[in-house]
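Handout, tutorial session.
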Amino acid sequence: MHARTTGARVALALGNDIVPIPGTKRRKYLEENAGADAVKLSAADLKRIDGVAPKGAAAGHRYNEVMMKLVNA
């Protein structure tokens, strides 16, 4: 993995197990995200990522109960 790649590109490159939703508000972000195809993650890269963000670490609701009532209200 290139040391200067972005978090969005890494998330897209990991797309097998997760479904990232990177921002594409501007054309530059779309072009940046399209560059994820060039990101090649080695076994060492995947081990390092799993060390800081193991599977199952992101769990629970995005918003608390009060804020969830405001979503699509």
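The second record follows below. Compare its token runs with those of the first.
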Amino acid sequence: MLCENWNERLRAETVATNAKIADLQDQRADLERFFLQPANAKLHDRAAFLNSLIDERSFDWTQMFMDLERILPGGVRVVSIEPGRSRGAWK
């Protein structure tokens, strides 16, 4: 009996989760159609530009320099640093 209640609850949660997923997929498709319209292309480009600025500012330069100060031996100078993104993470 306990197992049946658990199974029923799990099925209900699965149905609810699948419904949420379908709703989110519909919302995403609507947004993609919206941004593909020629009138909204500039808005999409602007959003991409602003997101790239946010990403650039999310790099913790202070922590990087503190790590370098702790790791590098005395007398070593850093001449150039150029962080890059790979798969959404800073490298």
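Points raised in discussion: Residues 2-36 form the longest helix (35 residues).
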